[in-house]
């Protein structure tokens, strides 16, 4: 029978948990200097901690990302600049909240807005930020999920809270949902909260910022204008075959 020393057993358990994406306070991404020098490739080695953070963040990114965007990378310079700013602003300490700029990717159907958004967020995960977390929804899906259902009366409030508080939100297709006073109020509350807290958000839209003003109204438009860099995306509809 092999007897493991207490320290070796702890390292073994730590590795197993980390592989399954379960954070452990003592090893989960401790961005500060290690308290003891670990062997290369073992807990305590800064490179080991970084690799664990990347693995955990990327597994969360993959879980949140629909199959069609699983291979998304971005080479768009504005999106890359945004990702790197957000990665650098990402709190090293669990007590702090992420604050940073937001993006509005706008342009025609199929030009690659959602793809670029997932690519930008992937870049943040791949940087190995601690406790990476994101939420993805589209405006129409968000309203559908919030509609009151019997027995789920708290659903709207729960989802709103989640969309307000998540460090990173990808809110796809703004302006496409049919607005009513109920939907307009929800969108305002979420945008206003993320604006007030400076929470990084990527919005995508088929509308230009000017057209969005008509669609979402002055109050939301004004907040979007201040909090986002508007990036126009051009090109053909990538879902359609290209004519020779
Ligand atoms: N840079 C890229 N490299 C490879 N594939 C891409 C790229 N950009 C987009 N695609 C692919 O093209 C398709 C359309 O992209 P996407 O869904 O991002 O478009 P969109 O601008 O968000 O469209 P919509 O306005 O309809 O929401 C997807 O299959 C996407 O994975
Ligand atoms: Mg899209």
Helices and strands in order, then pairings?
Layout: H1 6-19, H2 46-64, H3 77-89, E1 102-107, H4 113-126, E2 134-138, H5 139-146, H6 155-165, E3 168-172, H7 181-197, E4 201-205, H8 209-216, H9 218-227, E5 228-233
Parallel strand pairs: 1-4, 1-5, 2-3, 3-4
Helix pairs in contact: 2-4, 3-4, 6-7, 7-9, 8-9
This protein binds adenosine-5'-triphosphate and magnesium ion.
Describe the protein in words.
GO terms for molecular function: ATP binding. This is ATP-binding protein. Keywords: ATP-binding, Nucleotide-binding. Residues 99-226 form the AAA+ ATPase domain. Residues 17-48 are annotated as: Disordered. This protein is α/β, with parallel strands linked by helices. The chain has a domain at 71-233: 3-Layer(aba) Sandwich (Rossmann fold), CATH 3.40.50. Helices cover 47% and strands 11% of the residues. It contains 9 helices and 5 strands, in the order H-H-H-E-H-E-H-H-E-H-E-H-H-E. The chain has helices at residues 6-19, 46-64, 77-89, 113-126, 139-146, 155-165, 181-197, 209-216, 218-227; strands spanning 102-107, 134-138, 168-172, 201-205, 228-233. Strands 2-3-4-1-5 form a 5-stranded parallel beta sheet, with helices on both faces. The protein is globular. Bound molecules: adenosine-5'-triphosphate and magnesium ion.
